[in-house]
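Whether sequence alone determines local backbone shape is best considered at the level of individual chains. We regard such an encoding as a compact summary of how the chain folds. The sequence in question and its structure tokens are set out directly beneath this paragraph.
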Amino acid sequence: MKKCPFCGQEFPDDVIMCPTDRVALDRPTEERKKVTGSWQGVYGYGATAGAAGMRCVPFTLGLKQDWTGHFTGSVTDDGPDGIPGTGSIDGYFEFPTIEFTKQMPVAYIVGQDGMLRTLREHILAKGRACERELAASPIHYRGTFLDANRVQGTWTSRPRRIPLPDGPSISIARSSGYWCAQIVPAETQANVVRGPSQPLFDKSLLSQRELDDVEGLAMRSIGKFSVPDAEKFIESFEREGIRFDIDRDDTPIQTMPPILRAFGGYSGMAKLIELFIHPEDLPRAEAIINRDAKT
């Protein structure tokens, strides 16, 4: 029996094309030279993504590669769970590995209710000022080809801080997950209406570090710090590539005068920021805190 990689239906061995998606069921084993063309895929969130962990989103890529291995293109999410808008793609390919950055025009977040809303809507709902839509964080994709036409891997979006005009910045946590995609033959791409259903995903083909990045070793708290100290440490972590997350609530200091915010607010009243570090990066993070605390 053969299984269609897009709809998951099974067919007898003598069937060479899925009648639903018009996709060939036999896949060549030769190496792929370029990623130029249309790709259908799906991404899912990792186990530590909370409400987002239940989401799997189909997407479509249109790529064009030059002779150096560099490629650019566009991406659109499909279906009700997808991020609206058309994003840009920029990356490099050398079989069997591929890396690229996905940049969507507007930042969206998934609420605890599982609903999508723009980051601006989220900020306004908290009573903060935000005059215009904010750009999304870059999302970094890495993948390994299973054969000439199929690829799977992981994606990550790094944490970032966004300054707001009415006071302290807000922080966006790191997120991560899996993805897979398959080339759409030129003669059939107009008929394909969904992303592949299999494999989603064959985790046995991923390295332990890739699995840890997505499934998440438990981040370890390194302590709670005042706003100025925490922001200084975060800048150092970002420079050194240290994986971290934060737990921050600016509500108690939003109404304070700017001069008091700069010094952490009234004693005992300002909310502290708790920093969480990936276990493998903990020694380096502790060294940075010990060093920066003395400066």
Observations:
- Residues 249-269 have pLDDT under 50 and may be disordered.
- The two ends are 67 Å apart (CA to CA).
